[in-house]
Amino acid sequence: MKINEGYPVQEFKTELHNSEETPLHAQVKKMLATKLHYMTSQELCGSETWEDADKKFPIRDHHSGQFARNLIYNHIPRQNYNNKVFVEKDFSLETPSGSRLFIKPDVCIFNYKPLSIFEIIVTSKPKIDKLIAMIEAPVNVVFIYAEDVISDLSRKFNIHTNWSNNFKCFTGWRAEDSLITKVSRTIDMLIADKFPAKHHDILEKKICFFQEENVYNLYVKTPEWDWKPHTGSRKGKPTSTLNTLIKYYAEKTAPILEAVSYRDNSMTVEFVVGRTYNNYEDAFHVGTILKASQGETILFENQEAGIVNKTNYQNIKDGQKIRFVCGATNYGTNGRNKYYANHLANGKDNLNKVWMLE
Known about the structure:
By secondary structure, the protein is of the alpha+beta class.
């Protein structure tokens, strides 16, 4: 097809009030498959051959210089896909471990085996077993939020130039990308339409494991505030797609250890014991909190306090400096600040386990 030629006229039908698929989903699915099927190297980026086109990728964001995650052809090889594009094709997705999952992606590129999978999101997202299979399988994956792309697809569909920048997605990965890349971008897809990701830039993400509660939570950092727990992770069921995914990643990779707490209801304190009272159920230490912090935020410094020692370490001597993780609530009694120490924060066995995400 020459660059000034149009595509063959095709009839498109969609069903209204179909509980299985919205008209928006059907429209984006058809247009996506058509573009992939008919794309030429000239139409993609003005190159005479696919080999020359490939040399122009990956494309980087004009302002930041960062890899542009929102371009489809940054996540798939630049080549001719004529007669290799399928809509809702059933096949078995096999992982290196030998496990198989039968799936039917919205659109796929298939040539004797699955090469690329495209998931279009309108009202629902892929389930966890499908996501993990796509992460583990040697396949390229692209996520598309239909509302984000329908305008450009509809207005520019018959313009057959510069589709390297027009053919957009939400995010994706190449088959050879690392596990952290695949999991991190899957998390981006899962939280994209939720607060705070829907209204703020997510600068950093991390997974935190809290020993005493045996839970994994996703924490995010935005330009407006420091680290905070992501609402969907903190309030979601342990079996939710998001929480299952972050647990899956954490159990497959080694954490780093940090002597800080990122929870809303706790803080890490550096405490100097002045005097210890052992005539209660738990040891009670009176002294000075040199510094109380929550993540990277310092809450207060140099405050007299009483610490109810709920840890297994009861042999603390007067005058000793120690680090506790305490509840952040001030229980003020008899004019003195009183906190409950949950565990030590200066021994490797008691540090928080943290996994950084890209």
